[in-house]
Amino acid sequence: AFAKLLEFVEQFPHYFLGSNADLPIVGGSILSHEHFQGGRYEFAMAKAPMERRLSFPDFPQVAAGIVKWPMSVLRLQSRRTQRNLSSRSRSSPGRPEPLIALADRILAAWRGYTDEKAFLFAETDGEPHNAITPIARKRGELLELDLVLRNNITTEEFPLGLFHPHAEYHHIKKENIGLIEVMGLAVLPSRLKTELAGLEQAIVKRRDIRTDVTLAKHADWVDGLKQQYVFTPATTRKILLRETGKVFSRVLEDAGVFKRTPEGQAAFLRFLTSAGGTQ
Asked: What is the pTM of this model?
């Protein structure tokens, strides 16, 4: 899959191409075949910088770093070093491209990785939990892979998934976080078009949202917003749209397996070190 993604962006350098993860809950909406998605669009994640550089001594040709992003993303970059990107082709069954080989090492390490301190488990009762959402792009002369670490474990408190939109945000987003959303574009339920328009009218006309069966799910959210803003007919819609975007960013934080806290980033480094990375 890594080879196919990179071969595609070499032929079509103005596109990105990614693959959804191969497990349910964390974006694997189609598990019966490779679920690739791409297009000519620069997502926010592609613009995000690497905030912590790393090296993998076994792969000196590959630059690596943790991306400044709500989810847990390792970025790999290198120039192509072999004529054929495929890890094993009929015409040239040699060693794989270093970028692909390192991505494969990260994937294998992640699939088997457990860190109880961070509540990360490779499997429970024989069910695997760790997967990767990879995204490939061409950046000038560099080939680039973003590896987004995913985990689909469920708990009694979070039956839909621990690293999944939490219940407090379900009024906006309850569905799985797939490839496009990983990169920062919210794919929100169509019901919100009607519901946000209804909220705008209710707020402007000072109606009680809790008495409306359709809108009541948003009541606590709106009550909180009223503590922050003075709503007027001219500003209400803009505020609701902006705050919907903020909810989505928090949903991405929920989906991140290593939180953007000192403890979370230390756990991220523990994993990368276990896969051969050094600071």
From this structure: 0.91
